[in-house]
Write a sequence for this structure.
């Protein structure tokens, strides 16, 4: 029995994307920095607005989280003091010491996994290519945190 090779059509995606720019924009990796696409003022505005929104949201969520954690500890202390709950402080201390030892053990190697290192390298390359956008984001973030 002979095998027919005509049963399957193969599509060469490299040739396909050359003729279709929308396809290249969606599926091809970014060819460069945003400096190639936008002027300096646009980059600063985009970075500043996204940074301000992020900083503002970060501030609000941070306050809410701090209030929730602080209020939770406050309620636990009241419940412990009035006798509703009993905290085994020796067990808490033992677990905290165990966690400290594990943190010391993991941080003594001071080596990043290859996956984390590759992600960090990609972020650094992005930041270097988009300095103006990143600067605008950082400034906007600080303004958002302050407002």
């Amino acid at each position: 029995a002979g095998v027919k090779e005509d049963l399957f059509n193969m599509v060469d995606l490299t040739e396909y994307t050359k003729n279709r720019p929308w396809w290249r924009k969606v599926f091809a990796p970014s060819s460069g920095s945003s400096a190639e696409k936008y002027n300096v003022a646009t980059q600063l505005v985009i970075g500043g607005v996204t940074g301000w929104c992020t900083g503002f949201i970060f501030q609000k969520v941070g306050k809410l989280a701090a209030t929730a954690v602080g209020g939770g500890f406050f309620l636990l202390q009241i419940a412990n003091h009035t006798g509703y709950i009993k905290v085994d402080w020796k067990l808490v201390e033992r677990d905290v010491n165990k966690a400290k030892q594990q943190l010391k053990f993991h941080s003594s190697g001071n080596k990043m996994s290859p996956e984390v290192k590759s992600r960090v390298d990609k972020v650094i390359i992005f930041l270097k290519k988009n300095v103006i956008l990143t600067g605008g984001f950082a400034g906007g973030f600080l303004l958002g945190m302050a407002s």
